[in-house]
Amino acid sequence: EDQVTQSPEALRLQEGESSSLNCSYTVSGLRGLFWYRQDPGKGPEFLFTLYSAGEEKEKERLKATLTKKESFLHITAPKPEDSATYLCAVQAWEYGNKLVFGAGTILRVKS
Amino acid sequence: GAGVSQSPSNKVTEKGKDVELRCDPISGHTALYWYRQRLGQGLEFLIYFQGNSAPDKSGLPSDRFSAERTGESVSTLTIQRTQQEDSAVYLCASSWALFIEQFFGPGTRLTVL
Question: Dihedral of CA A78/B92/A89/A29: which sign?
């Protein structure tokens, strides 16, 4: 059973068309939830850490939120340069210090 | 250095050969992690180091895989007798403490023919 599930698998947006990516998790004892961006052929780039339900973080056109069962990455008025794979990962007491990743959402923003 | 560096960036090897992958973490980061990313799949944890010790090796797929870290800095991941299923991008990450964000290197793309 997957502990971290991301949806949708792929998302196509027009430039300026806001949307949200979802990351749901079934772990108990969440220590932290992390969002990364990954461009083709590169390593994941850190975006946000969320530690407790109700927490929100913002950076430019991105806003991450956390509930007890899921996290959302909201993208406001996206631009073509926001095209990438967005990865969600969790750390939980049951996993120790490792990150457990979801499969990612591939985002394409067309101008 | 400014970020995590890995070498080589690409490695092509023949089945049965041994390979060594290197990771230089961000200076001062005490924790170092190895992950594997197979084509079209998510990242899989392999092993992590706190200082030069490896408290969690649970993700190493078989005894052909080993890793070491020296001087609380550089780490080497060694794969012996490589198999085609070992083909993947091997990513290294580091963090200055436990249970916080990890910063990733660019990865080493390993292709086993």
Answer: negative
